[in-house]
Design brief:
- By secondary structure, this protein is an alpha/beta fold.
- It is 19% helix and 28% strand.
- The strands form five sheets. Strands 1, 2, 3, 4, 5, 14, 15 and 16 form an eight-stranded mixed beta sheet that branches.
- Helix 3 packs parallel to helix 4 and helix 9 crosses helix 10.
- This is Amidohydrolase family protein.
- Pfam families: Amidohydro_1.
- It comes from Gluconobacter cadivus.
- Keywords: Signal.
Length: 587
């Protein structure tokens, strides 16, 4: 019933602090042994940073007299690490944006790619991230097939569905308006050999999507796990695979095809590691060691053939925690056959190349961003030293460890915005609410989903417009169709509705289980029944009548952390249901 878009926990309070300015415009890191990510041997060097970028690096350079000096006394200094495949979702570990960001900084990660967000959420999240202690976050626009992986839970604003070259071009053109950092295409419906496969994308459609993305200057990564689909991705000019190939071991000819295409691989070994389930309480998962061994062997073969290997984890998925999984991924790359130095290169320069950011970061060199990690040890010699992070610096600011401000002073959630009385009068015909937020469909999950159509239509007797929704219910135990109206852009930031007593809506529709739901941050929801009939009526839903549903953190209602209101129906499988609504507001 509730949205699955990532929103996050408030904790004890809402904070509105901002990241402080750098301690000094010029900073010098001295005494460190620098592994610069260029392939040069590690050596003791001084790094001078000015205005967030590396001004100079070398053995004998002078430290400017006005520099703030950070002495790392013999520790290892490397470029900041990358994680090119993450999901900042409430189902992950940790669950909320400030905590996820902190987990990456604790692990020395300074750039991540997030594959979870709807394009509507990019702008508010980007603005919020500038006020958090956080790594750089690249947001990926999601594209799949009808019934495909990624389309089995999201609305079409979050994951576009395509099945032809024409629809591929239209989807890319639609998401480009939101300025994504890259495109993720779910081209392979293979579901990890643990659940039924979903639909896959044909080669012509994939190639058209990739070509249009490249015209727009965007890199394309694909969800691909099988050799056959990997070869299709190579022929379609995909930039990198967002998983490892697992169903069998690649032949030498197939390795050659991938190498010649220039496509890289981000194997996400962490999410498939069978060892992590040994002590897990999730007994539903049966790890497959044969598939994992295939993935390891294919990484080794591709790397030795010259294919670029990057680092990604699928963090946010079960038993794949944020931050720690990035470090574990480097250990698994060494297990696959890379040396510790090669694994570290994969997590820095190679990943920067795959995401197209190598001219900006990924090595320690003059002119590049001062994203730097300091380790207590020599991770290019002993990979387990990767766990001993002493400092993480983003844009020249120490955000974790040495010189970083104390944890209790870190900014978190912003103060909630006061709610407007009118949420939506459904007069706009562009799909947006009276609050200028984008309405979304919220049907049930799974490859067999309720078929839902919603929009606005004229109300009888010239009374303006109303919301309409009609749906054919899926063959599920509790099929559902609904429409969500965000209270803030992308339903990301919290809104305070506590000045009101409840929710009012004019509504009519099918006489089955209809509900009004108030969704909150971190996946919390509160719901109450709507007694519908075929005749218009104004129904008031007092906040006191809302009961907690699907609330993993057992949050109590305060009204100060609400993100959207949702109207929906759960009717008998296979039946057709409908509703109309007008004047959704607080009273």
């Amino acid at each position: 019933m509730k949205r699955t878009l990532m929103t996050a926990s408030l904790g004890a309070a809402f904070l509105c602090a901002t990241v402080p300015a750098a301690m000094a415009e010029t900073t010098a890191i001295v005494g460190g042994v620098v592994f610069d990510g260029t392939g040069a041997p590690a050596a003791r060097k001084t790094i001078v940073i000015r205005d967030g970028r590396i001004a100079d690096v070398g053995k004998d350079i002078a430290v400017p007299s006005n520099a703030h000096v950070i002495d790392v006394h013999g520790m290892a200094v490397t470029p900041g690490l990358f994680d090119l495949h993450t999901h900042w979702t409430v189902a992950g570990d940790p669950t909320d944006f400030p905590s996820i960001a902190a987990a990456y900084l604790r692990s020395g990660v300074t750039t991540v790619s997030d594959f979870n967000e709807a394009p509507e959420a990019y702008a508010p999240l980007r603005a919020w991230l500038t006020k958090l202690y956080a790594p750089h976050v690249n947001f990926a626009a999601r594209i799949s097939t009808p019934g495909g992986h990624g389309a089995d839970w999201a609305d079409q604003n979050t994951t576009r569905w395509i099945s032809s070259p024409d629809s591929a071009k239209a989807a890319i053109d639609a998401v480009v308006a939101y300025h994504p950092d890259l495109i993720k295409i779910f081209s392979d419906g293979w579901r990890y050999n643990r659940m039924p496969d979903n639909t896959s994308m044909n080669e012509a459609t994939l190639a058209a999507a990739v070509a249009e993305a490249h015209v727009k200057g965007l890199k394309v990564m694909t969800h691909t796990l099988t050799v056959e689909r990997g070869l299709i991705a190579a022929r379609a000019k995909v930039d990198s695979l967002a998983h490892g190939l697992q169903d069998r071991v690649l032949t030498e000819d197939e390795v050659g095809v991938i190498r010649e295409s220039g496509m890289g691989e981000i194997p996400t070994l962490s999410v498939f590691d069978p060892d992590k389930w040994v002590h897990s309480s999730d007994h539903k998962v049966v790890a497959n060691s044969v598939l994992f061994d295939n993935a390891l062997r294919n990484v080794r073969k591709l790397f030795r053939a010259g294919v670029i290997i990057g680092v990604g984890t699928d963090a946010g998925m079960p038993a794949t925690p944020h931050g720690l999984s990035t470090l574990h991924e480097l250990e698994l790359l060494v297990r696959a056959g890379l040396t510790p130095a090669q694994a570290l290169m994969a997590a820095t320069h190679s990943s920067a190349v795959l995401i197209g950011q190598d001219k900006d970061r990924g090595v320690i060199a003059p002119g590049l961003r001062a994203d730097i990690t300091v380790f207590d040890g020599r991770p290019w010699e002993t990979i387990s030293d990767i766990h001993h992070v002493a400092m993480t610096m983003v844009d020249g600011k120490p955000l974790y460890g040495l010189e970083a401000p104390p944890a209790d002073g870190r900014p978190g959630w912003p103060a909630p915005m006061p709610a407007a009385k009118l949420v939506d009068d459904f007069e706009r015909t562009d799909g947006r609410s009276s609050l200028d937020t984008l309405r979304t469909d919220t049907m049930d999950r799974g490859p067999d989903r309720t078929v839902e159509v919603s929009g606005v239509m004229p109300r009888e007797a010239g009374k303006g417009h109303v919301l309409f929704m009609t749906a054919t219910m899926a063959q599920q135990k509790t099929p559902y169709a609904g429409v969500s109206v965000p209270l803030s852009t992308g339903a990301i930031l919290p809104v305070d509705v506590s000045a009101y007593h409840g929710i009012s809506v004019e509504v009519r529709g099918s006489s089955c289980d209809a509900r009004m739901t108030a969704n909150g941050t971190v996946g919390a929801s509160w719901s109450a029944s709507l007694p519908l009939s075929a005749h218009w009526q104004t129904i008031r839903v007092p906040f006191t009548s809302l009961a907690s549903v699907d609330n993993p953190h057992h949050r109590v209602w305060t009204g100060r952390d609400i993100t959207d209101l949702e109207i929906g129906l759960s009717c008998a499988p296979g039946t057709t249901a409908w509703l109309q609504a007008d004047t959704l507001k607080f009273y």
